[in-house]
Design goal:
Helix content is 26%, strand content 34%. It contains 10 helices and 17 strands. The strands form 3 sheets. Strands 2, 8, 9, 10, 11, 12, 15, 16 and 17 form a 9-stranded mixed β-sheet that branches. A 6-stranded mixed β-sheet has the order 6-5-7-1-14-13, sandwiched between helices. The radius of gyration is 23 Å and the shape is globular. Mean pLDDT is 81; it is low at 1-9, 16-47 and 392-410.
């Protein structure tokens, strides 16, 4: 089967017992059901938002904007990650936090409630359920001269969570219940103490299976040891066809102008169609939908002048750029964009600390909501991603696109020209909830 765009993403958090074998002096050791009494339950200072899946998506998008602003300062060149995957994994982590750790994490996650109140976890589960609900494409098949209706998923989207805990470790039942019920993250026991490398291979095997063998050996040798107590994995596999595919015959090698003044030849795809479009003095924005328009890729092209990319990234980090989505209007657009693929590995410790949750990575961390053992801290947060984008689509996708697209030709009009032959940003979002799944920056198409 041909493809039009494929994204693969996996995020992993590793929790470990600190080197200290005694309790932290100022930490309390809660009872077994710490999810109900270990974290503060005082009312927030401001009136909390009404929580539903749209609000949960907005909280995740607030995090996405802030995270991009921080990581863009640390990472030069091409960039690609899933803010939703990171936010989801952090939300599961937040569910087991308490004290100052919970306060810092809640602020970074844009949450209004404490970890034990549960309402945000429930709203999150509604959002995850909506994202995992894949619409069906129906089309006519004429096999053996018999007409019949055939169904297939409009796209392939797998969002999987799993907890890998030290066998025999005293996890709080309330935390495990929250992880399983609200985040679909069951616990599998492994032997970090006795054989951490075997445990690593078991986890890597699950990663490979979940990502269709696209991500291999995610956890490197030596990353886990006998002090590891919990590995939390969050994986997203996504494959989708464009709603209107690019014609391969129209793709030509043309110059892509680099930010340093140089240029490279890259394959530029093109199509002219009615698309959602908006522009400002600093950028152009166009929305390219996937099949059935359940998800879309938003392309943001800075104006070709000095400092424009920095201004656009600042608007993304502040949340201003995401507000501009409301101004998109259906417009005839002559679109040019390069084929590209990216692979990204991020160490998130410094980024998340700089965003306002440094205590989670120290021996002062409080994850007593997870276990009565008070020596847990976040030792490592790793992120790995892969994306490939091209012009292809299946025959069924082309037929379906014809069915769902406008059937009458639009009146002639001069199209807006959107020519991504210089560095640009892109966002892949889920249209029903508004949640951002992926964010990327292309400085050199590869």
């Amino acid at each position: 089967m041909m493809k039009s765009g494929i994204q693969y993403l996996l995020l992993i958090f590793v929790f470990a017992i600190s080197g200290c074998t005694t309790q932290h002096e100022n930490d309390a050791t809660p009872g077994a059901d710490a999810m109900t009494d270990s974290a503060p339950t005082s009312e927030p200072a401001t009136q909390p938002r009404e929580l539903n899946m749209e609000t949960a998506a907005q909280q995740a998008n607030d995090f996405a904007a802030n995270f991009y602003g921080e990581v863009a300062k640390e990472e030069a060149g091409n960039l690609f990650f899933s803010p939703l995957s990171i936010h989801s994994a952090l939300s599961m982590t937040f569910a087991g936090s308490a004290g100052e750790t919970a306060k810092q994490m809640g602020s970074v996650l844009s949450f209004d409630y404490s970890p034990t109140e549960g309402i945000e976890h429930h709203a999150y589960s509604l959002m995850l359920q909506a994202i995992n609900t894949v619409p069906v494409v129906r089309f006519e098949s004429f096999e053996s001269e018999k007409r019949r209706t055939v169904e297939r998923p409009a796209f392939d989207l797998v969002l999987a969570n799993r907890l890998w805990g030290q066998e025999g470790f005293p996890w709080n039942p309330g935390y495990l219940q929250t992880a399983k019920r609200q985040y679909m993250a069951g616990l599998e026991e492994v032997g970090f103490r006795s054989d951490p490398d075997s445990a690593r291979k078991i986890i890597n095997a699950w990663v490979e299976e979940t990502t269709r063998d696209r991500i291999k050996d995610l956890i490197p040798s030596g990353a886990l040891n006998e002090l590891t107590r919990l590995v939390l994995t969050n994986a997203i596999y996504f494959k989708a066809n464009w709603n209107e595919s690019f014609a391969e015959n129209d793709t030509t090698n043309q110059p892509f102008f680099l930010s340093d003044g140089g240029q490279v030849d890259v394959p530029l795809m093109t199509q002219t169609d009615h698309l959602n479009y908006h522009e400002s003095d600093d950028w152009q924005m166009v929305e390219l939908p996937y099949e059935l328009k359940a998800l879309s890729m938003l392309l943001v092209l800075p104006e070709d002048n000095e400092g424009s990319m920095a201004r656009v990234e600042a608007q993304l980090a502040s949340g201003q750029l995401l507000e501009e989505l409301k101004a998109l209007e259906r417009t005839r657009v002559e679109l040019w964009m390069p084929k590209f693929s990216q692979t990204q590995e991020l160490d998130l410790n410094s980024t998340l600390s700089a965003m306002g949750m440094p205590v989670a990575f120290t021996d002062r961390a409080d994850f007593s909501g997870m276990s009565p053992d008070s020596n847990l801290y976040l030792s490592k947060a790793l992120h790995k991603a892969f994306i490939e984008v091209d012009e292809k689509g299946t025959e069924a996708a082309a037929a379906t696109a014809a069915i769902v697209s406008f059937t009458s030709a639009p009146p002639p009009e001069t199209p807006k020209v959107f020519r991504a032959d210089r560095p640009f940003l892109y966002i892949i979002h889920h249209n029903a909830t508004g949640a951002i799944l992926f964010i990327g920056r292309v400085t050199v198409p590869r």
